[in-house]
Design goal:
6-stranded mixed beta sheet; 149 residues; 3 helices
Length: 149
C-alpha cells in the first residue's frame, strides 16, 4: 500500500460544498491500495503512520508520534498515488488495485484506525474531493508497504 503522510496544523475534505471530515493539529494521510495488497499491508501501514515520530518534542526535534501528541487523523483515499509516468506524459494507474479491492482495504484501514486512535476523520471513497490543508513544517513523508513475498 502507498501513503503520503503530511503533518498539518489543520485539514479538511469537502465533497459537493460540504465538509465531510476535518481535523486540527495532526496528520492528513492519502492512501492507495495496489495490486496484491491485503489487510496485512493495510494494518502495517496504519501502524507505521500512528507511530512515526514527526511531531516536535520539547526541544523542537521530531521525536513524538501522532499517538504521543493525540492529534487528529484525516484519511483520504487517493488512487493517483499509484501513477506511473514512465511511459510518457499521461499517467497510467494500472498499478492501483481494482476499485472494489481498494474500497475494501480503505474501509479496513479506517475501521482499524478508529479502533486504535481517538480522533479519525475521512473523505469519501471514490468521490470528487477538495482537500484543504495547512502543512506544518512542511513535513510530508511518502510511505510504501509492499506485499509480503
Amino acid at each position: 500500500m502507498l501513503a503520503l503522510m503530511q503533518r498539518v496544523s489543520a485539514a479538511s475534505v469537502v465533497v459537493e460544498h460540504r465538509a465531510v471530515g476535518q481535523i486540527g493539529i495532526g496528520v492528513l494521510v492519502l492512501v492507495c491500495a495496489e495490486h496484491g495488497d491485503t489487510v496485512v499491508e493495510s494494518s502495517r501501514l496504519l501502524g507505521k503512520i500512528l507511530k512515526c515520530r514527526i511531531f516536535p518534542d520539547e526541544r523542537g526535534r521530531m521525536n513524538r508520534s501522532l499517538q504521543d501528541v493525540g492529534g487528529g487523523l484525516l484519511i483520504v483515499s487517493q488512487f493517483t498515488l499509484a501513477a506511473d509516468t514512465s511511459g510518457g506524459n499521461r499517467p497510467s494507474f494500472t498499478g492501483a488495485a481494482a476499485p472494489e479491492i481498494g474500497r475494501q482495504l480503505y474501509a479496513h484501514f479506517v475501521d482499524q484506525a478508529r479502533r486504535l486512535h481517538p480522533e479519525v476523520q475521512t473523505g469519501e471513497f471514490g468521490a470528487d474531493m477538495q482537500v484543504h490543508l495547512i502543512n506544518d513544517g512542511p513535513v510530508t513523508i511518502p510511505l510504501r508497504i509492499a506485499p509480503a513475498a
